[in-house]
């Protein structure tokens, strides 16, 4: 029925609508027309079609307003569809050709990284992956030398008062070095840890140099000196060890000698500050020598006032510094008698070593460096040579007997000050006089007179205070010592 109606209406349709016969909507509408009455076809059907067309137009307008971007995108895609399909076809063909090559590469990869046997490539890959997982830990290990060097330089820059401040920085540096040594013990075959340990040793050498420099500081106190020596012991423990039966040497070993050398350098630098006074004293010495050569009277040159100032200040500095050096040493490097006996073998020990050497076929010649005395045993002798050389050079310049006795009294108190620490050198001063020198001919008698007066004063003080036995210089150990020649 729909076909007959379409044939009947086709002359009245536009030529472009010839394909409407296959349209399902057209067929459905043609099937509906016979069901309508003639009156409905003439009156209501036109209005219904007009209303449906207007409703569809409004729907299309709303749809285009709401989804125009999708329409534009769809239109563009539809325009590119003609070129996209051939391109997709070419890519599919290329993919089809690459599948065999991909299969070959997969087979080669499988055979290369097979776990059937030991595979060096696979092991290397495992190492790389392990390195990637532990990159943070390795970065921390690599930063250890930098942190250590920063701590050492920061402590050296900020600890200006002989190590009395910023002790925590040095302690942190030593803790870092101990951690690096622990890593080296745990991983002895690791080249990374070995390089880190070498860099840490460089920083430790710099720290040891800074600590040794701190021992040269002025006004070094016992607490600061003990801290510095303790740090040096941790940085360079080999300084405490010396040849012997595996024990620590008496008197601090090489560290004690190093301490005395540093403090002696500080003493010498302090005495060198008296250079202007010493130059004036040298000028008086030259004038005295010229006057003796010309055999002129004693009034032809000055009576040694500049030399007196120089020696007075020299003896004051020497007394204070020498007593401080020896007292600091004894306060830091205190050893028991058992340690001293272990460091210096007795007669039985030497005899036992000789018998062992005779019975052993191996060459067991005793090492002469095993019986080295403590550094403090020879240090006072050097101090005595320092002050006696100065007195022998400049004391003849002083012609005033009262000034000379005042200086000798000051020297006597200096000897008594060191005598309390076992370094009395009062009897050595009797050798200041030279038999061939007329200027020093009466110094021995003056020194004996000063000693006699000092003993008489000490005896009176003992009677007043009821003190105990006297010191080698004749003074009581409990008696008060004058601090200046004026007080004497």
UniProtKB/TrEMBL annotation:
This is Conserved oligomeric Golgi complex subunit 8. Residues 282-304, 458-488 are annotated as: Disordered. Residues 468-488 have a biased composition (Polar residues). It comes from Aspergillus lucknowensis. Transmembrane segments: none annotated. Residues 282-293 have a biased composition (Basic and acidic residues). It is found in: Golgi apparatus membrane. Belongs to the COG8 family. Pfam families: Dor1 (PF04124).
């Amino acid at each position: 029925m729909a076909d007959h109606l379409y044939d009947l209406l086709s002359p009245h349709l536009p030529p472009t609508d010839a394909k409407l016969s296959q349209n399902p909507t057209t067929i459905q509408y043609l099937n509906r027309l016979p069901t309508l009455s003639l009156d409905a076809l003439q009156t209501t059907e036109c209005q219904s079609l007009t209303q449906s067309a207007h409703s569809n137009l409004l729907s299309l307008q709303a749809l285009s307003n709401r989804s125009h971007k999708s329409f534009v995108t769809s239109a563009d895609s539809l325009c590119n569809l003609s070129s996209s399909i051939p391109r997709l076809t070419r890519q599919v063909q290329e993919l089809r050709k690459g599948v065999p090559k991909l299969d070959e590469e997969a087979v080669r990869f499988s055979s290369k990284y097979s776990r059937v046997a030991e595979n060096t490539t696979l092991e290397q890959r495992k190492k790389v992956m392990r390195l990637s997982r532990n990159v943070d830990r390795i970065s921390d290990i690599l930063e250890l030398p930098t942190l250590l060097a920063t701590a050492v330089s920061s402590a050296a820059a900020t600890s200006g008062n002989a190590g009395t401040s910023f002790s925590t920085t040095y302690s942190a540096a030593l803790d870092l070095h101990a951690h690096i040594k622990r890593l080296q013990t745990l991983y002895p075959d690791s080249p990374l840890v070995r390089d880190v340990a070498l860099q840490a040793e460089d920083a430790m050498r710099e720290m040891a140099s800074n600590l040794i420099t701190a021992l040269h500081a002025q006004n070094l106190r016992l607490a600061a000196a003990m801290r510095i020596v303790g740090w040096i012991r941790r940085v360079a423990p080999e300084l405490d060890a010396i040849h012997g039966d595996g024990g620590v040497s008496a008197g601090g070993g090489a560290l004690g000698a190093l301490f005395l050398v540093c403090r002696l350098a500080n003493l010498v630098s302090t005495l060198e500050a008296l250079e202007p006074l010493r130059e004036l004293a040298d000028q008086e010495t030259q004038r005295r020598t010229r006057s003796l050569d010309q055999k002129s009277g004693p009034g032809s040159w000055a009576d040694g006032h500049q030399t007196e100032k120089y020696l007075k200040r020299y003896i004051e500095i020497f007394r204070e510094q020498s007593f401080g050096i020896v007292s600091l040493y004894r306060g830091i490097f205190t050893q028991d008698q058992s340690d001293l006996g272990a460091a210096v073998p007795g007669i039985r020990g030497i005899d036992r070593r000789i018998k062992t050497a005779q019975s052993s076929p191996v060459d067991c010649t005793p090492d002469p460096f095993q019986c080295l005395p403590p550094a403090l045993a020879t240090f006072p002798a050097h101090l005595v040579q320092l002050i006696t050389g100065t007195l022998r050079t400049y004391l003849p310049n002083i012609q005033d007997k009262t000034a000379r006795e005042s200086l000798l009294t000051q020297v006597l108190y200096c000897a008594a000050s060191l005598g309390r620490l076992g370094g009395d050198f009062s009897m050595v001063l009797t050798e200041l006089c030279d038999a061939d020198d007329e200027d020093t001919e009466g110094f021995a008698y003056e020194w004996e007179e000063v000693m006699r007066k000092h003993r008489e004063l000490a005896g009176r003080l003992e009677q007043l205070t009821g003190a105990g036995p006297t010191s080698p210089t004749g003074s009581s150990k409990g008696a008060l010592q004058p601090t200046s020649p004026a007080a004497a």
